[in-house]
Amino acid sequence: MRFESFSFSPEILRAISDCGYQDMTPIQQQAIPAIRRGQDVLASAQTGTGKTAAFALPILQKMVENPREVQNSNARALILTPTRELASQVADNISAYSQYLDFSVLTIYGGVKLDTQAQKLKRGADVIVATPGRLLEHLTACNLSLSSVDFLVLDEADRMLDMGFSADIQKILQAVNKNRQNLLFSATFSSSVKQLANEMLVKPKVISVDKQNTAAATVSQVVYPVEQRRKRELLSELIGTKNWRQVLVFTATRDAADELVKELNLDGIPSAVVHGEKAQGSRRRALREFVEGKMRVLVATEVAARGLDIQGLEYVVNYDLPFLAEDYVHRIGRTGRAGKTGVAISFVSREEERTLADIEKLIGQKIRRVTVPGYEVGNRDLLLKQLQKRRSFAKKQERGDNAGAQVIAEKNMQGRRVKLGKTTQTRLKKIK
C-alpha cells in the first residue's frame, strides 16, 4: 500500500517523496487510518518499523485540515520520548515531513540552558518533542502551558517507564488539555505499559505488528566466543580483515567506551564515542562524523540503544552483552531497518554465557556461533556444567562450614566448663 492511498495533502506527499518513502510499513498501514479517524492508539512495534511516520504524518494532516494559530507558550502536538537522542531524531523527522508546511517544531531536553529554551517556548510551537524530566521543569517554572494540546504521543513508553519517568509522566498528564487524542507507542506491552494505557487511553485501537521481543528478520545474528581480555583485539581484527566500514559498538560502561575508542584510534581505526557524560554538542558531532563516514566506529553505551537512527547502518556489535536480555533486541534494532539488511555481532566471554542463554530464551532461537582461530575459549556446555558444579560445591561447603563451626563452638564451651571447674576446685583448696 502506498501513501497516496490515504489522501495526504500535496505538501505532505511531496515531503514523503523527498524522504524516499514509497510503500507503507505494516505499522503505518494500521496506525494512520485509526489516527486520522481520531481514535486513541496503543501500538507495539519494534524499532526500525517506521513508527515515527506512523504517528507524525496523520497528526500533521489533521493539523492541515484544522488550521489554528499557535498560542504563546503552548503547542498543538506534544511528543514525549525517553532520551535526548530520540527527541532530536523524532523532531528531525517531523521537520522533514512538514518542510513544505508553515509548521514549527521545537525540541526540549536536558543538557541545554533552561533560559534559552524558555525564550523559544514563549513563542509557542505547532509541535514540541520533549523528554519528560526537562518538560516538567518548564511546567514547574511556568514557562509552558499544555492547555491547547490536541495530540499527545508517548514514544518508547516502556523505555520511559524503565528509566523512572512514571511520576513525571503522571504530572504531565494532569497538565495536558483533557480533550486530546492520545497515542502510545511501545516496543513491549509490559504490565506497567498496560496500566499506563488503561489510565491514559479511551477505547484505543490496539495494534501489534511484531511478535514481542523478537529481532527483525532483516538482521543476521552471530556470536563470537572470546575471552574478555581479548575482545578489543578481536574487534580490530574483524574490522580490518572483513573491511567493515560503519560499525556501531555497544559497551557496558562509560569507562569501557572511552578506553575502547582510545585503543581503536591507536590501531588506526577512526572512532568516536557517545555516552551520558559527553556534552550534547560532542555527541552530535560524533554522530555526524560517523554518519558522514569520517569515523569508522561509533562506540556507545545503553543511552543510545533506542535513540540513534542511522540510515543504512550495516553492523552492530555487542562488545559487552546488555544487563537486560530485552535490551539486546533494542540494540540490534539499530540495523536492518526499513526493510534493509544488517548484521548483529555479539562478543561473548565465559562470564557472559548465562546472559546469552537468557537472550536466546527471550528471542526463541539459538544464535549462530563462529569461532575465530586463535581466539578460542572453553566449551560452552562444559562451562555451564562447571558453573553448576561450583555452585553445588559452594552450597555443600557452606553447609559443612556451618556444621563445623557448630562442633568447634561446642568444643570451646566444653573447654570453658572444664577450665572453670578446675579454677573452682583450686579456690576451695585455698579456703581450706
TrEMBL record:
Pfam family, one: Helicase_C
Hydrolase among keywords: yes
Gene3D superfamilies (alphabetical): P-loop containing nucleotide triphosphate hydrolases
Residue span, Helicase ATP-binding domain: 32-207
Enzyme class label: hydrolase
Annotated ranges, domain DEAD-box RNA helicase Q: 1-29
This protein's UniProt keywords: ATP-binding, Cytoplasm, Helicase, Hydrolase, Nucleotide-binding
GO cellular component annotations of the record: cytosol
Gene Ontology molecular function: ATP binding; hydrolase activity; nucleic acid binding; RNA helicase activity
Gene Ontology terms: biological process: response to temperature stimulus; ribosome assembly
Signal peptide range: none
E.C. no: 3.6.4.13
Residue ranges occupied by any Helicase C-terminal domain in the UniProt entry: 218-383
Catalytic activity of the protein: ATP + H2O = ADP + phosphate + H(+)
Motif Q motif, residue range(s) on this chain: 1-29
Similarity section: Belongs to the DEAD box helicase family.
PANTHER family assigned to the protein according to its UniProt record, in alphabetical order: ATP-DEPENDENT RNA HELICASE RHLE (PTHR47959:SF13), ATP-DEPENDENT RNA HELICASE RHLE-RELATED (PTHR47959)
Protein name (record): DEAD-box ATP-dependent RNA helicase RhpA
